Amino acid sequence: MALPWALAVLSLLPLLDAQSLACPNFSVPITNASLDQISGKWFYIASAYRFPEYKKEAGKIHASFFYFTPNHTEDTILLREYMTLGDQCFYNSTILKVQRENATLSKSENDREHYGQLVLSKDPKTFMLASFPEDKQNMGLSFFADKPEVTPEQMQQFYDYLTCMGMDKSEVMYSDEKKNLCLPLEKQHDEERKKEKERSETGQSPVAVLCLQAQSLLAKSLSRISGKWFYIASAYRFPEYKKEASKIHASFFYFTPNHMEDTILLREYMTVGDQCFYNSIILKVQRENATLTKSENDTEHFRHLLLPKDPKTFMLASFPEDKQNMGLSIFADKPEVTPEQMEQFYDYLTCMGMDKSEVIYSDEKKNLCLPLEKQHDEERKKEKERSETDTAVD
Q1: What percent of the chain clears pLDDT 70, i.e. is strictly above it?
Q2: Which residues 6+ apart lie within 8 Å of 108 measured at CB?
Q3: Which of the residue ranges 73-87, 107-121, 368-382 would you say has the lowest mean pLDDT?
Q4: How does DSSP classify residue 394?
């Protein structure tokens, strides 16, 4: 399940424009060597936040670890993160942009860039990320290491930076590796990537499933799936997908295609339990075989896009040729669908060899994300107004 960025320990929620920290030598331009230094697996150790929302969300995190895969040429970093919240493990992957000169990592959200300041300490086995570094009321700092346990010396470096910023050790929240529930999922992903690599090396390619007819994604196809969509139902046989789908009460999202770059910006709102989660990520489009993909650990993971006759619905298929792990999801432009629209979904399921009894349905009555969506809409409106004002002044 896509992990909501709002809860990510990196805390790249809307931030102030990145600026140099008050303490000297905090901001050092990012080089290829810097990117190599933060490449690989990292563990979240501790953080201190004064911004109320950040502090609240960080307090929910029991344990977290992630992988950074930098791309020197494109100045991006693939983030794959595993996070334990309560009694559940959440996983997310997204692309971060690198601003070398001012030592920041950023992501696009709500049509603007949101920044986090990268802080490289003397110890190459640790690093930090700062938010609102010059705002005494809202500043924050997170600490990461290459192992879940750190030395007293490493921890002291974190405390020194906190003191330099004007924060106190009493504000620190710590992770607890004993509560880490994500190791089984990490192992599963490692095995999947190993199998994918073996298939790639042997030249094996899936045979097209006849009922899931491939169709080239023309510009009009991308325009068709642009806009707001609601998750209606899904059927998964892959155990982890089935487990995660059962946790989703309701979900809706926005697709914003970029025809020139063959990408889609996905902004997703998801209700899980009594919480609303938000995430944004860039999907790549393969037009010829009608697939949407995301990069993960140097491997492309595909979802087959299916466009039924009804332009107000579409579907995504996973592992369509693997009887044990196949899956299919349906989405519509409204939270309620007609019997005819639902029957299209059932027809595709039957064609794949699945049964209606395997379907898990959403429940729009449990949707808790409308307030957050409204907040984001208001933020984008204000940002647009500021942009238009600045342009008029120029």
Answers
A1: 82
A2: 97, 114, 265, 280, 282
A3: 107-121
A4: -
Distance CA 341, CA 90 (A): 31
Q: Are 12 and 116 in contact (CB under 8 A)?
A: yes
336/393 Cα distance (integer angstroms): 46
Q: Residues in the chain, how many?
A: 394
Residue 109, judged by CB atoms within 10 A of its CB (0-12, 13-18, 19+), counts as: buried
| Distance separating alpha carbons of residues 221 and 175, to the nearest angstrom | 45
20 phi and psi angles, rounded to 5 deg: -65, 145
List Cα–Cα distances, 184 to 190, 266, 322, in angstroms. Answer: 10, 27, 22
Q: Per-residue pLDDT for 210 more than 50?
A: no
Q: How far apart are the first and last CA of the chain?
A: 44
Q: How far apart are CA 235 and CA 320, in angstroms?
A: 12
Look at residues 89, 86, 80, 113 and name the one whose alpha carbon lies nearest to residue 10.
Answer: 80
Nearest Cα residue to 98 out of 18, 16, 15, 3? 18
